[in-house]
């Protein structure tokens, strides 16, 4: 029986070792690539629109004005946090009293504000973004509003609400601006008085409106009376002007007659309507037109004849 012998030349063991080394190298390379990619991705932070970036280095602020977009940082050393610099709204409900001790219940106060970009580091260090409302707004908004309302009578508060709001906003601006808080608006959204007081205010407003209506009617009547007087005066002036014109005309005619007696004949012709008289005569021979209804003596005919001609006396 034949015998077979196998001999090992030493290559098999090396192949296994080489394959293990290659696999380990690939895994190590992959890990290195992942780490590099992770580091690269962590080198940049995106700041959204409406926010501003604050860069910290080991917890210390080194930049507080990073604009929106892609911003570089050193991984594991620096950190970028976003701060909302858009308008914020703070609302509170409170009760207050006017200077005449009228109660204002459930007073709705609304404050619009934002953070000052130039003082962002101070806000973060001294107050803290998350503590602005509790440390600055809660103790000041309601207090300042109550103090301002307490200086005004209830009735005046209703009528001058806008002015009171402006006063409160100015005082809040003065108090909060040193802390980096910019006040953009303030509003008193409702005023709830005692029902009896609100009824009295309503009655007073109605009475004032009625008085205003009566005043307007009085002014209307006065204006109508003035117009009547003006019209009468204008008519009187017109009549005077007509009379003066007629007097002036007569005076001119008289002056003309004094200068030229024949002017009467010219004036007669100008005024004649073109119709002949029914009776014409001289001092002795009357003439009666056919179809005439009357005859007359010479004196009467002479009178009728002269009626057809305007009589103008000459001085």
Mean pLDDT over the full residue set: 78
What is the CATH architecture assignment of the largest domain? 2-Layer Sandwich
Helix percent band: 40-55%
Give the neighbour order of strands across the main sheet.
3-2-5
Number of strands: 10
Q: Beta-strand percentage?
A: 15-25%
Oligomer: single chain
Number of domains: 4
- What integer value in Å does the Rg equal? 56 Å
Discrete helix count = 8
Unreliable segments of 5+ consecutive residues: 1-7, 292-315
Task: From the 3D structure, determine the CATH topology of the largest domain.
Answer: Tetrahydropterin Synthase, Chain A
Task: Return the structural class.
Answer: alpha+beta
Shape: elongated
Brief write-up:
The protein has 315 residues and is of the alpha+beta class. It is 52% helix and 22% strand. β2 and β3 form a beta hairpin.
Task: Report what the structure shows.
This protein has 315 residues and is an alpha+beta fold. The chain has 4 domains: 29-84, no CATH class; 88-193, Band 7 domain (Tetrahydropterin Synthase, Chain A, 2-Layer Sandwich); 196-259; 273-307, no CATH class. It contains 8 helices and 10 strands. It has a 3-stranded antiparallel beta sheet with strand order 3-2-5, with no helix packed on it. It has a 3-stranded antiparallel beta sheet with strand order 6-7-8, covered by helices on one side. A hairpin with a 2-residue loop joins strand 2 (51-57) and strand 3. Helix 3 runs antiparallel to helix 5 (161-176). The longest helix is centred in the C-terminal third of the chain and has 65 residues, at 195-259. The chain is elongated.
């Amino acid at each position: 029986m034949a015998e077979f012998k196998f001999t090992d030349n030493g290559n098999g063991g090396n192949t296994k070792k080489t394959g293990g080394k290659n696999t380990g190298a690939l895994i190590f390379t992959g890990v290195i690539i992942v780490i590099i990619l992770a580091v690269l991705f962590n080198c940049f932070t995106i700041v959204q629109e409406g926010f501003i970036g604050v860069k910290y280095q080991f917890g210390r602020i080194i930049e507080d004005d990073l604009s929106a977009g892609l911003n570089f940082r050193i991984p594991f050393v620096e950190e970028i946090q976003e701060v909302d610099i858009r308008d914020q709204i703070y609302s509170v409900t409170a009760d207050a009293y006017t200077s005449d001790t009228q109660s204002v219940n459930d007073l709705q106060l609304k404050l619009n504000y934002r953070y000052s970009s130039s003082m962002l580091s101070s806000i973060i260090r001294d107050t803290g973004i998350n503590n602005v409302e509790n440390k600055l707004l809660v103790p000041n908004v309601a207090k300042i509003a109550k103090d301002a309302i307490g200086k005004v009578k209830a009735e005046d508060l209703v009528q001058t609400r806008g002015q009171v709001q402006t006063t409160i906003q100015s005082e809040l601006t003065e108090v909060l601006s040193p802390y980096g808080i910019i006040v953009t608006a303030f509003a008193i959204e409702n005023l709830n008085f005692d029902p009896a007081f609100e009824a009295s205010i309503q009655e007073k407003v109605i009475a004032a409106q009625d008085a205003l209506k009566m005043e307007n009617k009085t002014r209307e009547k006065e204006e109508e009376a003035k117009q009547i007087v003006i019209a009468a005066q204008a008519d009187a002036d017109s009549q005077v002007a007509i009379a003066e014109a007629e007097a002036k005309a007569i005076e001119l005619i008289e002056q003309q007659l004094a200068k030229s007696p024949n002017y009467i004949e010219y004036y007669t012709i100008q005024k004649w309507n073109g119709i002949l008289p029914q009776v014409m005569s001289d001092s002795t021979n009357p003439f009666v037109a056919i179809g005439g209804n009357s005859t007359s003596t010479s004196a009467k005919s002479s009178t009728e004849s002269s009626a057809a001609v305007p009589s103008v006396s000459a001085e």
